[in-house]
Design a protein that fits this description.
Number of helices: 12
Largest sheet: 8 strands, mixed
Helix content: 25-40%
GO molecular function, one term: DNA binding
Radius of gyration: 22 Å
InterPro entries: DEAD/DEAH_box_helicase_dom, Helicase_ATP-bd, P-loop_NTPase
CATH class of the largest domain: Alpha Beta
Organism: Vanilla planifolia (Vanilla)
Protein name: Helicase ATP-binding domain-containing protein
Number of domains: 2
Structural class: alpha/beta
Keywords: ATP-binding, DNA-binding, Helicase, Hydrolase, Metal-binding, Nucleotide-binding, Repeat, Zinc, Zinc-finger
CATH superfamily of the largest domain: P-loop containing nucleotide triphosphate hydrolases
């Protein structure tokens, strides 16, 4: 069965500020290990702060020039902006980014110290100029568990270059990396070389995100629907392996009812609703259902086919309307806001969580 954030999660939080991110406690250790080891693997849960803080730590220790890759354009821009804000500078000064044909500083200025890129952009530059010509002291490869042709080729090229350049430092970051695989991959760099692993402790469950799980019967109670009728209507009973990726109109209607319920139950208009759906078509269909309610909501779709500038609007706080962010699951790690409701559709159970 599926689940949604429960009714208490829809109420305004009593906490006025967030506690420090878990990665902050390991700042000195991370800097020390990156200096001492040619390859460092940092493993930490989503939301621990590694993507935005580790590049900042190394930049503050003057280990530039640094390049950091992200698997998605959206993450490249948002993290570059976060690091620039922390450094009290504008994007394009000492912090830049490069995605596709959009380039905001790329070590072409003496002010540039760190640049964020997609793996595809870095691979293209390595092909045209060679990694040696790019003159990086530190290469950070984030989300290495999200493997792609581009990221695998970048990793292979970086390893080859490390044989020639003994001073290059490589930082791999992931929430779910296979530590043994990366240790084996880099073990032939030298007899004395090893992959240093830093595990970021998980934050206490109630320190950053307060979450409860509601199952279908509890959702029925919230929406004042007969539990058995809801179960018969939405639970197909099919297995995950044979489930259809897209969802039907009944499930869309239920998600729509949940969004309206959350909006009516949560008084803080600045708290958003985050919805995960399995296909772009499903995102479009839910957007159509919400269209008549645009006087209440600001609806944003986060998907690789959406223009990056348009997607970045989802990161802005809206004080006049409830913000609804509808995501394809890959964008989960890129969305960092306070939410009063988070749910996603699983086709194998026919509901949300």
């Amino acid at each position: 069965m599926g689940s949604v954030a429960d009714d208490s999660a829809f109420k305004a939080s009593s906490h006025s500020c967030r506690p420090p991110l878990p990665v902050m406690a390991l700042r000195e250790k991370i800097v020390e290990k990156v200096r001492e080891n040619r390859v460092t693997l940092i493993v930490g849960d989503t939301g621990c702060g590694k993507s935005s803080r580790v590049p900042l730590f190394l930049l503050e220790e003057n280990m530039q020039p640094i390049v950091c890759t992200q698997p998605r354009r959206f993450a490249v821009v948002t993290i570059a902006r976060m690091v620039a804000k922390a450094r009290n500078c504008g994007v394009g000064e000492e912090v830049g980014y490069h995605i596709g044909h959009s380039k905001v500083s790329d070590m072409t200025s003496s002010r540039s110290k760190i640049v964020f890129k997609t793996a595809g952009v870095l691979l293209e530059q390595m092909r045209d100029k060679g990694l040696e010509a790019l003159r990086y002291n530190v290469i950070i490869l984030d989300e290495v568990h999200e493997r792609s042709v581009e990221s695998d080729l970048v990793l292979a090229c970086v390893k080859q270059f490390m044989v020639k350049n003994k001073d290059l430092r490589v930082v791999l970051m992931s929430a779910t990396a296979d530590i043994t695989r990366y240790r084996d991959y880099f073990k032939d760099l030298g007899r004395d070389e090893r992959v240093e692993v830093i595990a970021i402790p998980s934050a206490p469950k109630d320190s950053i995100f307060q979450r409860k799980v509601l199952y279908l019967e509890q959702v029925a109670k919230l929406l004042e629907i007969c539990p058995q009728a809801l179960s018969d209507r939405y639970c197909s009973g099919s297995s995950p392996t044979c489930a259809v990726a897209d969802i039907n109109k009944e499930v869309h209607a239920l998600i729509h009812e949940l969004i309206l319920y959350i909006h009516q139950s949560e008084p803080d208009i600045e708290k958003s609703v985050l919805v995960f759906l399995p296909t772009y078509h499903a995102l479009e269909q839910q957007w159509i259902l919400l269209k008549p309610f645009m006087s209440l909501f600001r609806v944003h779709i986060l998907h690789r086919s959406i223009d990056t500038d348009e997607a970045l609007l989802a990161m802005q706080t809206c004080k006049s309307h409830r913000k609804i962010s509808m995501n394809f699951p890959y964008a989960a790690g890129d969305s960092c806001h306070k939410y009063c409701g988070i749910f996603s559709y699983h086709s194998w159970c026919g509901f949300c969580n």
